[in-house]
Amino acid sequence: MTKLVALTPAQKETLTLIQTHTEKFGKAPTITELATKLKLRSLRSVTQRLESLEKKGLISRNRFQHRSISILDGVSSQMSSDLIQVPVIASAGCDAMDVYAEQRFGEYIVVDKSLIGGRRNSTNIAAIRAVGDSMQDAGIHSGDYVIVEVTDQVENGDRVVAILGNMAVIKRFSRVDEVVYLNPENKYGTYHPIVVREEDSRVFGKVLSIIPGTEWVDDIKIEYYTELEAER
After folding, report:
1. 179 and 101 share a domain?
2. In terms of CB atoms within 10 Å, which of 2, 20, 77, 133 comes out highest?
3. Are residues 34 and 148 in the same domain?
4. Which of the listed ranges 39-43, 82-86, 88-92, 110-114 does the model predict with the highest average pLDDT?
5. 202: domain CATH number?
6. Total domain count, the chain
7. pLDDT one-digit tens code per residue, 103-151
């Protein structure tokens, strides 16, 4: 199983149900059983979820069997021991201040625990999508996913996600007296530090690791999940 898998809440719910049903009854659920347990009126809605999970290498299906679904070897153990589900809660403009921080858990990525730096508590871990290239010397490029520990306890020199009004930026943090400097890291760009009074900004979190955007191939990219797609 790949270390980086994007799951919508609906797909995560479906995969978990398949796993628990198989462990409890020793056999996979049928599509009809899944529809009942997931409270979906359309069998096509179930099939769409299964197709997405199959494309992501999490399950296999045999169209000629009644109970055709099986979780691929290693997925169950990795899902429980090595991987955590992280909500993608915002986009942060590394150089574009028109990208808003949105507190909505509408999408998730599943990542290896090593990416959170050995921290025991994963409930305060989030993913932020970077926009722009003002931080490219720090290895953060537009389209990358930045794994963040949600905390305001940071030190000078830390890379942070900071909130300015209702917008989010990724920058290197420093504080002098009551003035906060949010510094870009791109020696080739015409970028300037953002300088604000401490009371006019808020540190949302500390950057722990970066998932390069190039890691995501087409069939496992984040799938944006809205109310209109709730049954997919």
Report:
1. yes
2. 133
3. no
4. 39-43
5. 2.10.109.10
6. 2
7. 556 677 777 777 777 666 677 888 888 888 899 999 998 888 899 998 9
Both tokens of 147, joined, read 């794994």
Nearest Cα to Cα of residue 162 among 126, 203, 193, 123: 203
Say if residue 102 is in the same domain as residue 72.
no
Closest CA to 145 of 163, 157, 127: 127
Fill in the amino acid letter for 20: T
Helix (H, G, I), strand (E, B) or coil at 64: coil
Range with lowest mean pLDDT among 6-10, 171-175, 227-231: 227-231
Q: How many other β-carbons are positioned within 10 Å of the β-carbon of residue 20? A: 12
Rounded percentage of the chain residues whose pLDDT exceeds 70: 75
Domain with 144, as residue range(s), is: 85-215
Tell me whether residue 19 is in a domain. Answer: yes
Whether residue 70 has pLDDT greater than 60: yes
CA–CA distance, 51 with 205 (Å, rounded to integer):
35
231 pLDDT exceeds 50? no
Last residue of a domain, one of 35, 62, 79: 79
Q: How far is CA 189 from CA 82, 193, 200, in A?
A: 38, 12, 26
Q: Please, what's the b/e burial string for 61-93 (b: 16 or more CB within 10 A of its CB; e: otherwise)? A: beeeeeeebbbeeebbeebeeebbebbbbbbbb
